[in-house]
Write the structure tokens for this entry.
Amino acid sequence: MKSETDLLRRLTDGARAFSANQRSLAKYVQTHYQTVAFSTVSDLAKQSGVSQATIVRFAKALGFKGYPGFQKEVRRLVRADLKGTERFKLSPAAASPLDLVLAKEMENLGALRDAFDAHAFRAALKSLRSASEVLIVGARATAPLATHMAFGLAKLGMRAARALAVTSDTYDQTNRLDRRACVVVIGFPRYLRELVELLDFAKSAKLATLAITDSAFSPLRGDVSLYAPAESASFMAFHSAPLVLINALLHELSFADRGATVAALDRFEAVADHRNFFHKE
């Protein structure tokens, strides 16, 4: 497959623990993953030359509950590899302008709710609350998400900065951070190499890291990782679920210290009134 993901590493690194048939299946999956993405267990058994039982045991050995979960991840990898032109050609026509997008975004939101990891969420809150400052990094399609999160943290009175592209300045900015700071990296398929490399750099600098991405198989892995599905039915990214996840973080942070939140919001409103920020009839 094109991207080096955790699933691919499992297929390679786990080879010694696999049976002979499982090693054969792993090699087939790596070579023909686009076919596997849309094959039934019966089809895959015929194509790979192993039994259906071997396929099910193989999926469980990789950490999935069964073949459907394994196949879903392979499909996600296939979609992550697609170029914009390929995504566009695969986009079906919709009965109304909203139908297609709403259906996919509601599917993403449902998956976010079903797969919500409360333990990881609490760990993320703890990391953000204890940070001396927070740098949120998002590039290209995730730049608006980084802007939104930085804006929310700043309104809560937290020291927050954003980086909307990864340049040499971003590395300088990261290197200058206090060692009690936290770096948040937001990225979804197709995963930007520059985000993966910056996250690795932050880890090497012993900074706390939080990754907001779509799957445990994403190459973006922080000290804490939060997952929000971002499946798209278009050439454009679908980010309703990630935005909901970020808003949930901001909401819970605001209630962690109500007094500090009220004080920060009062300071904002005082400046807004003094400078006449908002239109009034």
Q: What stands out?
A: The first helix runs from residue 6 to 13. The two ends are 58 Å apart (CA to CA). Residues 6-81 form a domain with the Arc Repressor Mutant, subunit A fold (CATH 1.10.10.10). Strands lie at 134-138, 160-163, 182-186, 208-213, 224-227.
